[in-house]
Amino acid sequence: MIEERFDAIVVGAGMAGNAAALTMAKRGMKVLQLERGEYPGSKNVQGAILYADMMEKLIPEFREEAPLERHLVEQRFWIMDDRSHVGMHYRSDDFNEERPNRYTIIRAQFDKWFSSKVREAGATVLCETTVTELARDDRERVVGVRTDRRDGEIHADVVVLAEGVNGLLGTRAGLRARPTPDNVALAVKEMHFLPRETIEARFNLKGDEGVVIEAAGTISRGMTGMGFIYANKECISLGIGCLVADFQRTGQTPYGMLDHFKQHPSVAPLIAGSEVKEYSAHLIPEGGYKAIPQLHGDGWVVVGDAAQLNNAIHREGSNLAMTSGRIAAEAIVQVKSRREPMTATNLSLYKKMLDDSFVIKDLKKYKDLPTLMHTHSQNFFLTYPQLISKAMQNFVRVDGTPKAEKEKATLKSFVRARSWTGLFGDACRFARAWR
Ligand SMILES: Cc1cc2nc3c(=O)[nH]c(=O)nc-3n(C[C@H](O)[C@H](O)[C@H](O)COP(=O)(O)OP(=O)(O)OC[C@H]3O[C@@H](n4cnc5c(N)ncnc54)[C@H](O)[C@@H]3O)c2cc1C
């Protein structure tokens, strides 16, 4: 296939792989990037919110060139029971700034564009090429990759594993364990097409303004999971995901949950009359800090979802992927510029730089939340949403009952459902895990 030797091989052309390949190519390194999909983005699924700050660090002029959908001016959080939602909306005209903070995107289009910038920077990008194995020398150091192409062994000083959450290459090579069912969620997503004016009217938007809705509650039927509704220019991305361990335990199906979510009285009017043109499913890393594997070794580093770098609480994944890809690449560039070998010791610079970044600091902050949410999913995703909904109904319904009696009834319903010790315990557990 390719006879020459590269400074670095990047496996995968998602957010992490593109960030790594771009950073190294821009710094004059000889980079080969391999992607199994027909084109970058063809295999990728995301909600999808793009966080501008991280993109800007890679491509400052991206706003003028990239295929962006809507810039976000509003974020809604919904706690749902079967018939209602209790919502918190944050909307600010401040977000109508010249350089908006977040955008919705469509990954198939965005990744293609991102990859064109990687090529422009001088990297060789080969699609429809699956890396099947890591090549090692007699001291077990990674020295390149084998691919599904004929004579497909290629050598490089370092291999960047940016192969996504289900990265079989790294797990088969024994560099990290396969993600366990309680460390990954399975999400399903549909794209609902509607005329632009209809979307703007339904979501109270004008021009390129956008809104996203994050939803949790009885829609996940007591499992650890969330739904999302994101407005694009001419379509709405709508999906829901739950921990794989919970699907295993309950026998629920992702498509069944998605149907249920779409029929919810708060959701159905938003997508009424739409045409569904795309259905996709994908895993999401959810294990947080405690699930992060070994990040580097002799001749290799792992970045993005493959390294479980996803902040499930804030729904941030692509920015952690881009940031880890960029940081890994900067560490590699530094090692190379010192003319030192890509040993585990030298590549530990990547881990050190990542530890100093928001990526690890954020994941560390929430290190106990994934376990808490999973072990108490019935309470957090079923009981409390139902109680909150009833409490709100009680608060807003005017029926001649004195307010003091209403408050007493609400308090009683919480104590009946969880007991005083249960309520106190949940509050303490949540506060401890959040801090
Ligand atoms: C439903 C859903 C909604 C999400 N919403 C958001 C959101 O709104 N905002 C956000 O920031 N994040 C979101 N995420 C998370 C985000 O999508 C990921 O964190 C991000 O895509 C990770 O980037 P990555 O480059 O690590 O992996 P990926 O984007 O998955 O890229 C991995 C690439 O490697 C390729 N590959 C794999 N194995 C091989 C191989 N052996 N050889 C060659 N190529 C290979 C794949 O084809 C793929 O292109 C969402 C995820 C899902 C599933």
Topology:
Elements: E1 6-11, H1 15-26, E2 31-34, E3 49-51, H2 52-58, H3 62-65, E4 71-80, E5 85-91, E6 102-104, H4 107-120, E7 124-126, E8 131-136, E9 142-147, E10 153-161, H5 168-172, E11 184-193, H6 196-203, E12 209-217, E13 225-231, E14 235-243, H7 244-250, H8 254-263, H9 268-271, E15 275-285, E16 296-297, E17 300-302, H10 318-337, H11 344-355, H12 358-365, H13 369-375, H14 377-396, H15 403-434
Parallel strand pairs: 1-2, 1-10, 2-7, 4-12, 10-17
Antiparallel strand pairs: 3-6, 4-5, 8-9, 9-10, 11-14, 11-15, 12-13, 13-14, 16-17
Helix pairs in contact: 1-4, 1-10, 10-11, 14-15
Bound molecules: flavin-adenine dinucleotide.
Number of helices, where a helix is a run of at least 4 consecutive DSSP H or I residues? 15
The hetero molecules present are: flavin-adenine dinucleotide
Q: How far do the termini sit from each other?
A: 52 Å
Task: Tell me the fraction of residues in β-strands, as a range.
Answer: 15-25%
Number of strands: 17
From the alpha carbons, calculate the radius of gyration and give it in angstroms: 23 Å
Average pLDDT, all residues? 95
Helix/strand-derived category reads alpha/beta
Shape: globular
Percent range of helical residues? 25-40%
Largest sheet: 8 strands, mixed
Uncertain ranges: none
